[in-house]
Amino acid sequence: LLSWMDPVAETIRQRQLEVRAAKARGRQTAPAAAFLLMVEPRALAVIAMHEAMATCLAVSSREEGSSARFTRLTARLGEAVRAEINLRNLAKLRRKRNREKKEARAAGVADEHTQRRAENNRLQARDRMVDEIVRASRPSLYQVNFVAERSAVAHPGWTVQHETQVGAYLVEALLQNCTVGIDADGQISDSREATLEPAFAHTVLQSGPNKVIGEVTLHPAIVQTVLGSSEDLRETIAPRFLPMVVSPRPWTSIDVGGYLRSKTSLLRQKPDMMHQRALYAADLSFVYQGLNVLGSQPWQVNRTVLNVASQLWQEGGNIAGLVSRADEDVPTVPKKKPVDEEFEKLDDKQKAQLFDYLDLRRKARKSAKTNRERHSLRCDTSYRLDQALEFSKEDRIYLPHSLDFRGRAYPIPAHLQHMASDLCRGMLTFSKPGRELGERGVFWLKVHLANLLGHDKLCFQDRIAAAESAIPQAIAAAQNPYSDASLEFWSTQEDPFQVLAACAEFNDATRFSGAGVRLDKAMEGFESCLPVQMDGSCNGLQHYAALGRDVVGGAQVNLLPSEKPMDVYSGVADRVGEKVAREAAAGDELAKKLLGKISRKIVKQTVMTSVYGVTRIGARQQIENRLKETMDLSDDDQWHAAFYLSKLTLSSLGDLFQGAVSTMEWLAICAQNIAKSDDSVQWITPLGLPVMQPYRIEDNKQVRTVVQSVSLSLSSEDNPVARSRQRSAFPPNYIHSLDSSHMLMTAVACADAGLNFASVHDSFWTNAADVDKMNTILREQFVKLHQKNLLEDLLQYFKARYEHNGIDFPDLPKRGELELTEVLKSQYFFD
Fold it and tell me: Closest Cα partner for 448 from 746, 743, 766?
């Protein structure tokens, strides 16, 4: 790979000479070309080679190779060149200040900068950042460029377009010069018999009727060499955030926490300057405490599940939710149409030939799209399994967390973490030692199995019965997961690998039961590590019902005690079915076709996403997708039925959740009025986290580069706010900020009680033996969160924050009579 250095550097040097010559003759050059002159060719070659390899290897596998979108790669290379220039400027600034200090000390006086620094805390913090960046062995590009801008040493002429063009120059140099010798076995070789092949290949793919995308692909042999090499080489070329083997650094500020050496930010998205100032000024101590609880939870890899998943993957996948390792056959499409005449002039035979050709082309495009999707999924699966295998040797691993701009917590490691796919969730378990099950732990482990087998809408008594009837199959599946009967039992479930993990836990728990010992009694002494999940009942609607003290809506989402769990999806489906029956009786032909066919499955996704601002068009598409799965309708009837049912579903939702709808509308009107004043919607979460919606109108620009044209969507804090997006996004974003607050409050309280705790937003996890304790805590924290009038607090904040804008806010929606403390008695609130 080092053989690329000289030819790439020489191509860059020649380009620099051309730019200098053009300038000397007074000819105009591309604005971005001037930035190539700021760094010497060999340094640019190193940047190009390293960043291109790292970007292409960001998602890769030995079998599938690796590629990166051309736009992403050029942006990354341009950002790296900019960072190199800024880092040099920061080093000059540091040397200058050190020299001034030395001269001032020799003269017995304080230099001007030191005097100003002593009077300005912000200047002190900036100097510390400069020192850290210059001394760091591998600072992030964003941190370098950010500190350079704050220190006023960044080049003022850089734009995103310039970054793209500079990156394209470097990509061109790589495409022209980087080759690799490949022997007859497809391996890298430096022998004379080896065939030289391009190390990087640029291809253009069709991505829709009127859109193409460029990709740069790294040769599969290089990918295999890198992924099969030492960890040091892999992490030098393509460093990634992985799980940790020691407890993460506690969060103490917005840029201190998580990994011990690699810097990470509290927020996953880059905040603008106003948001950063608000974050620095806020008291985030409780937020940090909650994130530290999540990050310090020890995990381990479930080797049983890993071994089964690896075996099925080696055998070709296409089972238990694993993507097939084989591609679909893509039909060969003739290069030319069978006929060139205008359609009106064609006879019936020619028209049939044309239709066959168009149908074949459509199938080929569909198959090619499927294969691209499979390629991506295969890379992802391979990487997850490789990472799980690597960390299976560790007794404990940790997942540092950060936040999105709304305050929702996510693990920083991208691949092996419990918020990922069913495969990852099945492969992770709490670390040993586990918690002795006891009688209640056995109860909740059975409930967990029943929930995973699809019985989560039954009462607990019926769930226990369902689990007990399934335990013999579960134990058999754990002992021989590859038999036909076992595969039929566990691999066909909605979450197959989590089911397999539960089967393995039951097998281990019952392994030492002797003759005459009751099964439950034998299980009580088992130390279980399996996380048991308690999920909220359409949690967004739970928060809406609590905000509006909505009795009817609260009952539908289990805020009130009941003998069996209320199912909001079935409730809405029943209401829709009643309306369809009335209209069918009145003679509506479409209603007659749908009579008696409205199921929970048809309305579930629309009800679930209604809390998050689903549109009428989105609801129609969701229901149409379900109709394709459940009903045999013509394409025309399908479209009209989906449109018809989407209206009925949303209106039925309004019938059952009038309080939620009025609260949602109030939030949307407030956001609309704020956006009309050309300001973004901002608020403070109950835990003190400042939130600012980042939605602004994007500038769409076409940038021509030496390799291809690039379409850029540019957004900046100086751009006008996107009014419609600010309005539509605020209700769901506000609810997300509440569910994240509830989760972090529960995390801290569980840690104080000595419980293991993890979450996937509104799904809370702990050991089976501790579910009763966690259930009590999460209900108490929900009541504590909503005891205050959160909407009144929000309105007062809006009035204070936007007073200068002269905005009128509507009166608060009328609250109902729901007694919030009833949540404490509701056994199905989270279940």
Answer: 766
